[in-house]
Amino acid sequence: MGMNEIFSNVKLKSKQFCCGNKNFKIDYSDDLDAIIDQMTNEQFEEDERFPYFFAVWDSGVLLAEYLINNSLSLQGKTVLELGAGTGVTGIALAMNVDCRVIFTDYEEFSCQLCHHNCEINNLDNFETLVADWRDFPEIEENIDVVICSDVLYEKKQVAPLFNVLNTFLQKKIPVYLADPGRAYINDFLSLVKDAGYSIKASKEKDMKENKLLSATNVYVIENS
Questions:
Q1: How far apart are CA 149 and CA 61, in angstroms?
Q2: From residue 74, how far is each of 54, 95, 167 by CA, in Å?
Q3: Computed from CA positions of residues 97, 98, 99, 101, in that sequence, does the dihedral angle turn out positive or negative?
Q4: 3-222 architecture in CATH?
Q5: Spatial contact of 74 and 156, defined as CB atoms under 8 Å apart
Q6: Which of 23, 36, 55, 154 has the most other CB atoms within 10 Å of its CB?
Q7: Do the Cβ atoms of 51 and 7 come closer than 8 Å?
Q8: What digits encode the pLDDT tens for the residues 155-214?
Q9: Is the dihedral of CA 88, 91, 95, 97 positive or negative?
């Protein structure tokens, strides 16, 4: 069975969220072990394809809350999301601010899931793009802000993520990254500091009733 067929057979759940003053719905799965059980060893070992993207991670919701609460001027802007997963962060932004979101992920099915979740929330000003950080595609559209949340699961992801973000930081495009304290966040931040970029951090907690289990750190990275 191919990967897309496995992913297509996953039974999705739905959950309501509230960010800013908007409610929205995300379809997702939290039974990641059951998904892995359907994969062959060869399929799983190909880039260690753990299906992280099916879950809604608390950091994604808290990053959206941070961006909305800090009144960032995103109206009419284009937001690029890396490792978009279910699309929860970009969707929360698009629901509250008149912005365009480009959802990107390594997994093609993640992009399909983002598209699906945008449609069930009646969003249309978005695009999805399959993108490998090791060979990131050129994006012709002007990007105003880059966002990503809970994306540093493996050490091998640190350098590729930094390299992608570096291309935007060199153009003075700010990056907002949320991380709950994964093992490799400090390795990533060391690369950022060594490159001379500024980092501001804040601890964010659930101030709504989304029933999130953890807090997360939001890092604002800029070429100042």
A1: 9
A2: 27, 12, 21
A3: positive
A4: 3-Layer(aba) Sandwich (3.40)
A5: no
A6: 55
A7: yes
A8: 999 999 999 999 999 999 999 999 999 999 999 999 999 999 999 999 999 988 888 988
A9: positive
